[in-house]
Amino acid sequence: MHNKSVAELSRDLESGQVSSVELTQQFLERIRQEDSKYNSFITVTENQALADAKAADEQRAAGHATPWTGVPFAHKDIFCTNGVLTTCGSRMLENFVPPYDATVTANFRKAGAVCLGKTNMDEFAMGSSTESSFFGATTNPWGLGQGSKRVPGGSSGGSAAAVAARLVPAATATDTGGSIRQPAALCGITGLKPTYGRVSRYGMIAFASSLDQGGTMARTAEDNALMLNVMAGFDPKDSTSIDREVPDYTAALNEPLKGLKIGLPKEYFSDQLSPAMEQQVRDAVKEYEKLGATVKEVSLPNAKLAIAAYYVIAPAEASANLSRFDGVRYGYRCEDPKDLMDLYTRTRAEGFGNEVKRRILVGTYALSAGYFDAYYLKAQKVRRLIQQDFINAFKDVDVLMSPTTPSPAFNQGEKTNDPVTMYLEDVFTIAINLAGIPAMSIPAGFVDGLPVGVQIIGDYFSEARLLNAAHKFQQVTDWHQREPQ
Amino acid sequence: MTISRKDIEKVAVLARIRVDDEQVSALEKDLGNILDLVDQLGAADTDSVEPMAHPLDAVQRLRADEVTESDQRERFQAIAPATENGLYLVPRVIE
Amino acid sequence: MQWDIVIGLEIHVQLATRTKIFSGSSTAYGAEPNTQANAVDLAMPGTLPVPNEQAFRYAVMFGLAVNAEIERRSMFERKNYFYPDLPKGYQTTQLERPIVGPGFVDIDLANGETKRVRIHHAHLEEDAGKSLHEDFHGMTGVDLNRAGTPLIEVVTEPDMNNAEEAVAFAKKLHGIVTSLGICDGDMSQGSMRFDVNISLKPKGSETLGTRTETKNLNSFRFMEQAIAHEVERQMDILEDGGTIVQETRLYNGDKDESRSMRTKEEANDYRYFPCPDLLPVEIDDSFIDEARNSLPELPDAKKARFMEQYGLNDYDAGLLAGDSKLAAFFEAAAERGKDAKLASNWVQGEFSARLNAEEKSVADSPITGEQLGDLVVRIADNTISSAGAKKVFEALWTGEGESVDAIIDAKGLKQVSDTGALEAMVDEVLASMPDQVAQYQQESDPKKQKKMLGGFMGPLMKASKGQGNPKLFNEILVRKLGE
């Protein structure tokens, strides 16, 4: 049962082969037994899940089922859940129970899906290894068989590990610089970061507002499509959400790929990439050629500046977004503040972890008098150059393909003392967020026994095409079906 | 680009994060490395490039002026660190 | 040494929208603390702002009223600083592209001259909450009901040169925003708050001196006092050879004292940057046209009309037209009373004095303009004397009678205007005062004669039990004494 996809579980529920309560019990039992190895959940909402499952079974019996009615899944602990602890991986929100739902949360509720709990993440989504969580690091299910403790990637490492370990068939995630695609690649699953504005950010705790985007994680492209059907759409509560028709993302999954024009950005196949990694990507591209796609090299000349631009813009936005955590209205507050300054400085020193503090300080510096033009404004200009590169590329090709990460999952602790090395994990993913375009990571083989991913990048609002390309690939490969031992 | 201890102390005050001397030393190195990374931006020719604040070229929607919210003080203050008589409490503010 | 005073104003105008600038919470004044602060206003994690269209409409109306350019693509920035009444840790405001560009307002001065004060720009922003410093055992209480109330901040050029001009401008602006109906103008509730920038320079000098900013003045009177106080303070320092420190000051109107604010605070660095949660706001022609068509008559136009239509002089017309509610009250009284000059005198005299004495606004007046008009009718047709009119006004104010005529009847205030009866009384009184009559008749100076008439009026009013028409008495007296 735990190896089944959302689509399969949905069919089983529909045929009456299994009830939501039974499914929910089985997955909860798996989490209870297995998750001590991974620490992929911060909170497991057992009672609520069982109550929701019961309600879902009743809905189905009454003939009001959606494809999600009664299907178990999990939320990244960045989405606010009414009445359920929402920590964002931080001590600052260790006891924060929001009295409201994120729009994404509400959408899944409406669809009748059964949330089993909240998954672990890098604190405030700042990280690429899920080691900066106040609730302990998450371990990648894939290294364990070889006796190594590998990171699952981040920041959505809890969601990725939980899906890879078959604790849930699907989980929500967010991506600011690669936080869906990189962990999806490192855990051997499929993840999609939609176009900026496609999924509402309301109730999704902000890291960098102009880059953050909620998205999907599951083992198959089809399940990602089913998730996006629930998540995508205009939200009047989010001024940056786009009022544009939402297609049925499952409708075009089986469209033939004949004539699909694939571009390979030469800057993403440089010496940063090990020959073994590159081989996996080239093999995947060959599969696409077999499916009728054509391939050409393209150039993204400014892509090499993406990390630099990102590490100005994201920390700058974060420095303001995280000012609300001040110990006054909710969240952590230091003991016995002696005055207002003490309340602020100690609450924030004690409530935030090191990486979050580093980024707030970098962002504050970049915005401060005398540096604004050289850093912030310059980064915004470079951002436009990067966007222009993609716009130009998509004049010639339909999608771009690249490795998702420079290497497979690394060992826990390997990069924690060197922030900049950690930042380079996102070298292939980060430009996509700056441009705001959609991209996926799909499983594409193994290096040293660890999964690696191929990134498929599309033009604005081309999610259906990306899912189609991913799905067709998954019809002729089985990388996404491999189970960690 | 190097960042001085003084800069770090100033920025920490602006960001309202207490840092002790030891942390300042660690931050000097880490922030210095991050700023070195960021300094690559200087290489880009951005004359006549418009800054880009948003990924999409969209314009703001405006909301009708209608009250949609009701009093939820009790629920919000149930999760507050310190309240009294419906007010949030903070150490005395001297203007 | 002689000094030139240079004054610029920043005025926060609370917009009279139903809801906040970025959320659907009510902005009604006086609610229990924090009952009008929702998830967005409290800056709960993950919440996002959605701007209120009405705030933009009001800002555009304001821009049109002050002859300003409207920014077709305005933006919001974040202004970063920590304060307990600022939930997000930044204020969402406009810096680079404010909604209202340069404009101007003409003000009337006491010497009859008109002066143009230029407006640098006006921008939309959110108000902060309130900190309450009493009664919490050494803690401060924070009420966020006001947090997110829409404001326009109007910034002038330093075009004013004394307190009179600054106050005249402030009053003019008050008249404009209340006429537009975009602000309730209630200063006691903080609906308009003034920051005054003041600097001094040697008379005739081209170079501006260092300025100070005196913040948060919430009445015209305090503003006038604060300017006088600050000018004197700066003059004392400069004449002692000192230098002015650029700083923000707080003025205490009750004690006529001021002090520097945030003395030991580190230099502010607000780290403005474009708010990534909000997109550029595009204002198109139809939005502007709609706003233009909804503009009511503004004070300048109203003043011109009052002079033309009612024959008021420049001063009276300006004063009445400057306050839309007072102007409406006056018009009702003038239309009903058929004597605009008399109506104007009563509105500016007895009526305004009474409002001031009881610290009431026109809206709280217990009498209507129509009632005052009825009173004006009875004064003009000599039914009552001016002394009697004051009694009727008093009765109307305290709600003693139904109508003006009912009060006149009930109080027996109708004047005797029957000339025969009055002449008889005059004859009688003159006969009883032969010495005074002789004195009067011997006096050659008409001015002194006029003064002496008063001596007969007392006994005459007594004889008529206060109901004799004083004007007629006067005429008869002059005639009879001249015989």
TrEMBL record, chain A:
Gene3D superfamilies: Amidase signature (AS) domain. GO terms for molecular function: ATP binding; glutaminyl-tRNA synthase (glutamine-hydrolyzing) activity; transferase activity. GO terms for cellular component: glutamyl-tRNA(Gln) amidotransferase complex. The keyword Transferase applies. Its EC number is 6.3.5.7. Pfam families: Amidase. The active site is at 76 (charge relay system), 155 (charge relay system), 179 (acyl-ester intermediate). GO terms for biological process: translation. Keywords: ATP-binding, Ligase, Nucleotide-binding, Protein biosynthesis, Transferase. It catalyses: L-glutamyl-tRNA(Gln) + L-glutamine + ATP + H2O = L-glutaminyl-tRNA(Gln) + L-glutamate + ADP + phosphate + H(+). Residues 22-467 form the Amidase domain. InterPro entries: Amidase, Amidase_CS, Amidase_dom, AS_sf, GatA. NCBIfam families: gatA. Allows the formation of correctly charged Gln-tRNA(Gln) through the transamidation of misacylated Glu-tRNA(Gln) in organisms which lack glutaminyl-tRNA synthetase. The reaction takes place in the presence of glutamine and ATP through an activated gamma-phospho-Glu-tRNA(Gln). Heterotrimer of A, B and C subunits. Belongs to the amidase family. GatA subfamily. This is Glutamyl-tRNA(Gln) amidotransferase subunit A. The gene is gatA.
TrEMBL record, chain B:
It is an enzyme of class 6 (ligase). It catalyses: L-aspartyl-tRNA(Asn) + L-glutamine + ATP + H2O = L-asparaginyl-tRNA(Asn) + L-glutamate + ADP + phosphate + 2 H(+); L-glutamyl-tRNA(Gln) + L-glutamine + ATP + H2O = L-glutaminyl-tRNA(Gln) + L-glutamate + ADP + phosphate + H(+). Its EC number is 6.3.5.-. Gene3D superfamilies: Glu-tRNAGln amidotransferase C subunit, N-terminal domain. The keyword Cell wall biogenesis/degradation does not apply. InterPro entries: Asp/Glu-ADT_sf_sub_c (IPR036113), GatC (IPR003837). Keywords: ATP-binding, Ligase, Nucleotide-binding, Protein biosynthesis, Transferase. The keyword Magnesium does not apply. GO terms for molecular function: asparaginyl-tRNA synthase (glutamine-hydrolyzing) activity; ATP binding; glutaminyl-tRNA synthase (glutamine-hydrolyzing) activity; transferase activity. GO terms for biological process: glutaminyl-tRNAGln biosynthesis via transamidation; regulation of translational fidelity; translation. Heterotrimer of A, B and C subunits. NCBIfam families: gatC (TIGR00135). Allows the formation of correctly charged Asn-tRNA(Asn) or Gln-tRNA(Gln) through the transamidation of misacylated Asp-tRNA(Asn) or Glu-tRNA(Gln) in organisms which lack either or both of asparaginyl-tRNA or glutaminyl-tRNA synthetases. The reaction takes place in the presence of glutamine and ATP through an activated phospho-Asp-tRNA(Asn) or phospho-Glu-tRNA(Gln). Belongs to the GatC family. This is Aspartyl/glutamyl-tRNA(Asn/Gln) amidotransferase subunit C.
From TrEMBL, chain C:
Allows the formation of correctly charged Asn-tRNA(Asn) or Gln-tRNA(Gln) through the transamidation of misacylated Asp-tRNA(Asn) or Glu-tRNA(Gln) in organisms which lack either or both of asparaginyl-tRNA or glutaminyl-tRNA synthetases. The reaction takes place in the presence of glutamine and ATP through an activated phospho-Asp-tRNA(Asn) or phospho-Glu-tRNA(Gln). It comes from Marinobacter confluentis. InterPro entries: Asn/Gln-tRNA_amidoTrfase_suB/E, Asn/Gln-tRNA_Trfase_suB/E_cat, Asn/Gln_amidotransferase, Asn/Gln_tRNA_amidoTrase-B-like, GatB, GatB_C_1, GatB_Yqey_C_2, Gln-tRNA_amidoTrfase_suB_CS. SMART domains: GatB_Yqey. Residues 328-481 form the Asn/Gln amidotransferase domain. The keyword Heme does not apply. One of its GO terms (molecular function) is glutaminyl-tRNA synthase (glutamine-hydrolyzing) activity. Keywords: ATP-binding, Ligase, Nucleotide-binding, Protein biosynthesis, Transferase. This is Aspartyl/glutamyl-tRNA(Asn/Gln) amidotransferase subunit B. Belongs to the GatB/GatE family. GatB subfamily.
